[in-house]
Amino acid sequence: MASLAPEIGTNLHTDRANPHWVRLGDDSKLDHIPGEDGWPVLGTTMMQLADPLGFQRRMVDTYGPVFRTRSFGRRGVNLVGADANELVLFDRDKLFSNEQGWGPVLNLLFPRGLMLMDFEAHRVDRRALSIAFKPEPMRAYCSVLNTGIASAMGQWGGKMQFYDAIKALTLDTAASSFLGLPLGPEADRLNKAFVDMVQASVGVVRKPLPFTKMGRGVAGRRLMVDYFGKLVRERRANPGQDMFSQFALATRDDGALLPEDVVVDHMIFLMMAAHDTITSSATVLFWQLAKNPDWQDKLRAEARAVTGGDGLALAYEDLGRMELTEMAFKEALRFMPPVPNMPRRALRDFRFGGYDIPAGTPIGISPAAVHADPAHWDAPERFDPLRFTPEKVAARHKYAWAPFGGGAHMCLGLHFAYMQVKLLTNHILTRFEIVMQPGAEPQWQAWPIPKPRDGLKVELRPLR
Q: CA nearest 138: which of 315, 321, 265?
């Protein structure tokens, strides 16, 4: 096989209004790349949405790790492998645009989220927002999360749909730590708005027409903008210790506050990420713990040893001692990452895997496919947190595991995610044994964020 190192060209097609903007390329220039255009009109869209991992495997087996598809009306090129992840995510040579990759999917729903920003604009806003994830604010969030999760545990137990319960809990705890207030009667409306916005991201109809997913998603965004816009003004007048106050008072390099509409856009995106992606990943983790009771016992024993008993708070200073829990969470993220594929657009011509790929080409990488690759993971279908011991991590390709992205766009909230899952694990496992209800193995909806179609039917048995 040809070297997978990129060979960078110099052909840059720009828009005068935006020095990084590149027009979509001519589809015919991808004829030389093996692949499939799929069905008339729909292309390969439905196949990719129905079973992204199965589709990726079939395409790699048939055409190799560089292949052509046609989804949402456009031809694009998929690059599959750890080297491809490194090329695109680390993006040493600024070859790829996040904004132009995610934009066609998310611009109507989550504009100006950090994931949709490039280069200097991204650096400036990321630096401003990073203040919300410093140790002192994180310590405050930890206290709020401990209280909220412990309180919710009093209502848990018996047979339940875990995904639905954890989604309601993570939205409530995200509101408490991010906004500094309970959602109260707004909770159902906001949760529905988030659901509609996320589902709209994979709607086949891309215009916000009535009765379509995109129409419902754009309506949900309007509700969010109104709700968070009012809160920005309130927090600037009376700031607290919550994350929203940190964002409302964040400044750029020149000392100016972030504009109100920018704060709103960042907050909407981060609220979605903080409860939808954690809901998915925590559900995968507890699904696997229910199926692997030996690991459930190990994490329970670790939590008891760190906190000193059952149902006790996990202190911020002790988060680092939850080593097995962190490895188990990383394995859950490997097993089923919350974002199975990541889009970009090529800003310049480049060469990869033996193929010349022109500027303007939509590019896709698949962390999910690499996470399931036997070349990096022995028996990848098996849940095994010990894959993440320091020795095994050091011996593996750095980009064989990439659930949080990488490079300049590494997820800003990844430490918040680790903290929240460690707190959930401590409070749940030291109160309950979690077992699967009898029945068939749950079927998972892959897009836009993985979720069990039956809500994951479990039973929480109080510990004696």
A: 315
Other CB atoms within a 10 A radius of the CB of residue 51 amount to: 14
Angstrom distance (rounded) from CA 284 to CA 459: 15
Radius of gyration, CA atoms only, the chain: 22
Spatial distance between the Cα atoms of 463 and 427, rounded to a whole number of angstroms: 12
**Cβ contact 199:215 at 8 Å:** no
Identity of the amino acid at 179: L
Q: Which residues of 5-29 are buried (b: 16+ CB within 10 A; e: fewer)?
A: ebeebeeeeeeeeeebbbebbeeeb
Q: What single letter denotes the amino acid at residue 270?
A: L
Looking at the DSSP assignment, which residues form a beta bridge with residue 452?
Answer: 444
Q: Give 444's strand partners.
A: 452
Maximum mean pLDDT: which of 49-63, 94-108, 303-317: 303-317
Task: Render pLDDT for 246-275 as a digit per residue (tens, 0 to 9).
Answer: 888 888 888 888 888 988 998 888 888 777
Show Cβ contacts of residue 305 under 8 Å, excluding neighbours closer than 6 positions. Answer: none
Task: Give the Cα separation of 320 and 364 in Å (integer).
Answer: 34
Task: Report DSSP letters for 332-363, one per residue.
Answer: HHHHS-SS--EEEEESEEEEETTEEE-TT-EE
Could you give the percent of the chain with pLDDT greater than 90?
61
Cα–Cα distance measured from residue 334 to residue 387, given in angstroms and rounded to the nearest whole number: 10
Contacts of 255 (CB under 8 A, 6+ apart): none
Mean pLDDT of the chain: 89
pLDDT tens figures, 304-356: 999 999 999 999 999 999 999 999 999 999 999 999 899 999 999 999 999 99
**Residue 417: strand, helix, or coil:** helix
Cα dist. 343→17, 116, 382 in Å?
23, 11, 28
The pair of structure tokens assigned to 399 is 């980009």
The pTM of this model reads: 0.91
74: helix, strand or coil = strand
Tokens of 225: 């903008």
CB 174 within 8 A of CB 243: no
* Superfamily, domain 7-462: Cytochrome P450 (1.10.630.10)
Helix (H, G, I), strand (E, B) or coil at 430: coil
